[in-house]
Give the backbone structure.
Amino acid sequence: MGDGGFFDEMWRDAGEVREPYRRFNAWFEDENPRDLLAKQREAEDLFRLAGITFNVYGRAEAEERLIPFDIIPRIIANAEWQRLSRGIEQRVRAINAFLHDIYHRQEIVKAGRLPEGMLARNAAFLPQMIGVKPPGGIYTHVVGIDLVRTGPGQFYVLEDNARTPSGVSYMLENRETMLQMFPELFVRNRVQPVQTYPADLRRSLAASAPAGTAGRPTVAVLTPGIYNSAYYEHAFLADQMGVDLVEGHDLRVVDGRVAMRTTRGYKPIDVLYRRVDDDFLDPLNFTPESQLGIPGIMDVYRSGGITIANAPGTGIADDKAIYSYMPEIVEFYTGERPLLENVPTWRCSDPDALAYVLDNLADLVVKEVHGSGGYGMLIGPTATKKEIAAFRRKLRARPGHYIAQPTLALSTVPIFSRAGLAPRHVDLRPFVLCSPEGVRITPGGLTRVALKKGSLVVNSSQGGGTKDTWVLED
Amino acid sequence: MLGKTANGLFWMYRYLERAENTARLIETGQRIALTRSGASDLEWRPVLQTAGVYDAYLAAHQDVTKDAAIDWLLRSKDNPSSVIHCIAAARQNARLVRTALTHEVWEATNGAHMRAQHLLARKVGERDLPAVLGTIRQATSLVRGATHGTMLRNDIYDFARIGTFLERADNTARILDVKYYVLLPSVTSIGSSLDNVQWETILRSVSARGGFRMEYGNSYEPQDIAKFLILDRRMPRSLAFCVRKLRDNLGYLVECYGKRPEAWHKADHIDRAYLSHTIDTIFDYGLHEFIQRLLDLLSELGAQIEKDYRFYE
């Protein structure tokens, strides 16, 4: 059932089911498709009632939409997962070391492995962080590494989300929904649990509290507010961790500490898990014209009075131009060969690369260096001539804003449709927690699936759905 | 607890209570229209006044008609006290304080919102009105039930209750404010069928007909009705009941926070100075003046709570 040369994770070409899906398929074949369709609708009702929605930017105000959920799980064998985990851990450790280095001695530049211009002329590089030592030495407390697969054992890192990765609530709610709808599946398959994530997150954040924090650290989640597209997730995580969910206007610097306004006065915060961009952290230090943020929080941060997770300035590590240097970065800081592969990347700021990209636009994927969410992106093979021409003009005007990559043959996993199982392209975002206690990777992650036949765009804002992701026990 | 969270809880439950009150007022209005011969559309004027939306209604309409009044109370996006708007606002506040609510309370609130959106998407025909209002009241009752059954009795619960009872007291006071004249003993047509209908209307609009009958039997005396709605401490929508609940819940906050703020003293003052008399004293004071004074005091109490518990600053 794999078609068009794409690697299907459930089926071999001969219509033979792959090992991790064997038990699932036995169950599936015994099920009545009509019952499953009803279950699919039931899942939607469950999500809607729970209010698991996201807001779409540029749509009618406060419109809330559901991310479509597909009931066929994406299943990964434990051995495969172990291999991936090692690669992810190596990468995340390298990213932390890289961030520390570029905000201190910049050895990697001195060693000639990264051009100085990549930092100096990069908007994601925060000069305010130079010389700042984050509590516990951790920069990226929460990371989401986007992986795609092209063949057996063939994974690529597409992106390192090192600022404020989102989607973890879907990982948890998808599992919750599957447990509720198909309990028998979890009796037949031994699936590694993901439900420990909120407790792990809290523990990891608490372990990153400033030195000298007395007693149990006070943790809070900082959200831009209920109109933010990921508000549901912010509230969900705060709720699951049993901590307060705050907005900028709830916070103020009091006696050299960042404190939240409670019914009994101002209470200092030790660890702030912020889900806002750097620009909205501190109007005094970053964006003087901004009404948002907490004036003076950066001064408290620099004096070691609060942990901000992730640290300001981590965006440089998931910058798409820096991405192309990741193999070097991993090698430079770990002394090992990278276990996970990077997608070959052309930096359009380089004239030779630009010339190649312009000649091969129809075969390439072109991305904005600072973009995210699948916006402002060209997918050559599916683009119209007009779109390609428009992008050609953009590239010529500001080549430094773009990178290009070959179009990857993303693996497929079947979705459940009226016509039965139908292969669709997927990616995978595992979630990684870092603290002075170590690196912890939740077995599973968020599988995003392009619901449209043939589509390679999995972003929820552009017609993508999600699946429960299983990592089997041995 | 965050000041913002206390504020959100306070308003979430105020809006839920208001949604129920508006729904009940529509039911009452509809009931009069159906049971009284010669009833005219003008009957809807006091209903709109009681809901506190008469002026806004007039700004948007030429005259008072039954259909327009019902639609305004039920579905208007321009009327902040319409049922659909109250439920949406309650749910918006619930989203804001999601971390303070149990899963059950959140789902019940979200479910009430989904139902209201569905049922009130189009104009509701007369025949469907009772069923629609019944369903909505059930949906909001589910939130209340989930609140009672699953929420910890801590400050979160206290702010929810404070919002509930402030809104309820305000609602009962407004019903009395609009209809006080039919309760005055000096009205000439005492005992006329007109009065009977008016009195019944008052009792219906606070769901108190059954309770009143249990206590006073079938004969409506205006004095008894006033006493029941103002001073009866067993009647869950009476002013005395609501104000005492407000003081109780503010008292629990005192226990929880170890500080007795101005708001508690204000609630205590309302109870002692205004709601610990006989009904005769109130009539001597002037029923209308009394109700007006209470409405002012309740609004001051609301502002004080906001300040004492740092809702905004």
The interface with chain A takes residues 1-6, 92, 95-96, 98-99, 106-107, 110-111, 114, 155, 253, 257, 259, 309-310, 313 of chain B (CB under 8 Å). The CA atoms of residues 127 and 176 of chain B lie 30 Å apart. Residues 3-35 of chain B form the longest helix (33 residues).
